[in-house]
Structure formats: structure tokens, C-alpha cells
Specification:
Shape: elongated
Helix content: 25-40%
Order of helices and strands: HHHHEEEEEEEEEEEEEHEHEEHEE
Radius of gyration: 46 Å
Strand content: 25-35%
Largest sheet: 13 strands, mixed
Number of strands: 18
Length: 326
């Protein structure tokens, strides 16, 4: 490659040496004319413009970078103040909803996050936050429950069922609020509660005292208040079934929930019959036998079966009819 370049240079020198004066002047004139066609001023301005644009771009990037850094620092400080200065914000959603359900034929006892105790009757559901809020202890109920509430004047205890709210500080009471029943019942054993029935806690509430029993008609929104012995309404949480002049339809409902069976009254003539007795630790068959012996009610028991198609077990069935005279 080097030899070729050297050869080309030698050829060019030899060619220039053979030119006469006129040919050398013509070649020089052509070179000068090409140089004159280049606008050096324009080229200089163009280069200078590019340099200025580049400087402006770099300056803009530099300014924006500094602005971003200046804005980021107070934003970081504000976030830190909000997070660390107010612990309630970072703990605002630090809870879970707990739901406990007891099926037919089952009763259970629950200890709430504040140490309060709740007895759930059969076919009942209770929901609450774990842990409780710092300002209130709220529980929702469907079914029946007996509450023994830990006293805390700073954090009231609230039970909600539909539009009915029960507000207490520390007390023992029973709430019966089954969805398929027209009446909601609250019975106060100890302490004092505030009962609102329209869903508005700020409205005037009914103040209950020990021995009070309030029955709220969910259809008519009417409230009935009586006072007397309440053991028969709350003794179920001690394992007792207390019937005191209780109509047979209500007896059938309570026995059905208590033992997890289906009870049907086939004869309307016995619906007005009332039962007065107390059962404790007796089996379903013992109770049915006692009812049969002490009342005009005939009892037919149909055992549970297993469906051959879906392998599911059906509930045992009890049929109440009026005894026929021999």
C-alpha cells in the first residue's frame, strides 16, 4: 500500500514537471475559484449557532436537575412527617375483619379483642374488626347472642343489626335478631344501654335499665318495652331451654335451631297451645317424649337420610300434629 502511494506521488510530480507555464497558471486559477465559493462567514455562524444551542440544552438540563432536587427534598421531608409523625395514618388499615358463624344445632363462646365475651346461639353470625378501633368497639350481629362487655368509658361498645344500634359502656345483655323473624329483641340483665331503632345514632335513643325487654317490630317500626324477670330470655347461654307460656310455633323454632332439625306443625289447632317447662342437658328425644306425654301434641320423628345422588345428608324432621281421641 505504501509503495502505491509513493508511486502516485512520483507520477504527480512528473506530470507537474512536464506542464508549461500556461497550464500551471490555469490549474492554480481553478483552485482559487473553488476556494472563493466557500462562504467562510456563513460556516462560522452556523458552527457558532450549533455551539450556542448545545450550551442552552446543557443549561436547561442542569436547571431542571437542580429544580428536581430542590423539590424532592421538601417532598421527602413532608412524607416522613406524615408517616412518622402520625402513627394513626400508617395503622389506619392495619386490621382484619373476623366473622364467626354457628350452624344449626351448635352454640359457641367467643372472646372479643377487648376481652368481652359473647355467647352465640345456633344459626348466628357475628362480625368485628381485629383489633378494635381506638374510638369504638363495633360488632355486627345476625341471629342471637348474649354479651358480657368489658367496661371502658373511653371506648363505647356498639352492636349493630340492621337499623338497630345498641350502645353500651360495660354491661350484660341479650340481642335476638334473626333475619327471618319479624321482631328484634333486646333484654338487659345488668348495666345500662342506649338503643336506637332508626339507624341514626344522633337521634333520641331509648335508655334501657336492668330487667327491661324491648321488642322492635321490623315491619311497623313499633317498639314495645316491658320490665320483669329476664332469666328465661338469657338462660340459653347457660345451656338451658326455658319455655314460659311459650306458643308451640316458637317452641318448634327454638328446638329446631337448638338441635339442628326441621320441625313442622301440621295441625293449626295446636299452634295456640303454650308450653311451660325448662330443659337442661336433655336430648332431643327426651324433650320430644316429654312434650308428647304432657300435651295434646303427637310427635313423629323422621331420621336423617343421605341423598344417593349428591351424597348429602338431609336434616332429621319432626312433625307435630294434634292427638286424636281414642
Amino acid at each position: 500500500m505504501i509503495n502505491k502511494v509513493q508511486h502516485d506521488i512520483q507520477d504527480l510530480i512528473s506530470e507537474r514537471s512536464r506542464q508549461d507555464m500556461v497550464e500551471q497558471v490555469a490549474e492554480a486559477t481553478l483552485a482559487v475559484s473553488e476556494i472563493d465559493e466557500i462562504d467562510s462567514r456563513k460556516a462560522y455562524l452556523e458552527i457558532q449557532s450549533r455551539i450556542q444551542k448545545d450550551r442552552k440544552y446543557r443549561l436547561l438540563i442542569n436547571v431542571l436537575s437542580r429544580a428536581a432536587a430542590i423539590l424532592f427534598i421538601p417532598l421527602l421531608v413532608a412524607t416522613a412527617i406524615l408517616y412518622f409523625g402520625k402513627p394513626e395514618l400508617k395503622n389506619q388499615q392495619n386490621f382484619a375483619m373476623q366473622e364467626i358463624t354457628t350452624p344449626l344445632g351448635v352454640r359457641s363462646q367467643v372472646t372479643l379483642p377487648d376481652g368481652s365475651h359473647v355467647w352465640l346461639n345456633a344459626e348466628s353470625t357475628i362480625r368485628f374488626k381485629v383489633p378494635f378501633d381506638q374510638t369504638s368497639r363495633e360488632v355486627s350481629l345476625v341471629g342471637e347472642a348474649f354479651f358480657d362487655v368489658q367496661k371502658n368509658p373511653k371506648v363505647p361498645f356498639l352492636v349493630k343489626s340492621g337499623n338497630v344500634g345498641i350502645k353500651v359502656l360495660g354491661t350484660r345483655f341479650n340481642c335476638k335478631a334473626y333475619e327471618d323473624e319479624y321482631n328484634l329483641e333486646v333484654v338487659l340483665a345488668e348495666g345500662k344501654v342506649s338503643l336506637s331503632t332508626n339507624g341514626d345514632e344522633s337521634a333520641e335513643a331509648l335508655i334501657m335499665k336492668p330487667g327491661d325487654r324491648v321488642v322492635f317490630d321490623k315491619i311497623s317500626n313499633q317498639t314495645t318495652l316491658t320490665n320483669g324477670k329476664v332469666d328465661k330470655y338469657i338462660d340459653w347461654h347457660n345451656g338451658k331451654l326455658v319455655f314460659d307460656e311459650t306458643p308451640m310455633p316458637e317452641v318448634a323454632t327454638q328446638l329446631g335451631r337448638w338441635f339442628g332439625v326441621e320441625i313442622v306443625i301440621n295441625d293449626p289447632k295446636i299452634e295456640n297451645y303454650k308450653l311451660t317447662t325448662t330443659f337442661e342437658n336433655e336430648s332431643l328425644h327426651q324433650i320430644l317424649e316429654l312434650i308428647k306425654l304432657s300435651s295434646p301434641v303427637e310427635v313423629t320423628y323422621i331420621s336423617a337420610t343421605i341423598n344417593s345422588l349428591n351424597k348429602k345428608q338431609t336434616k332429621a324432621k319432626v312433625i307435630f300434629t294434634k292427638k286424636t281421641k281414642n
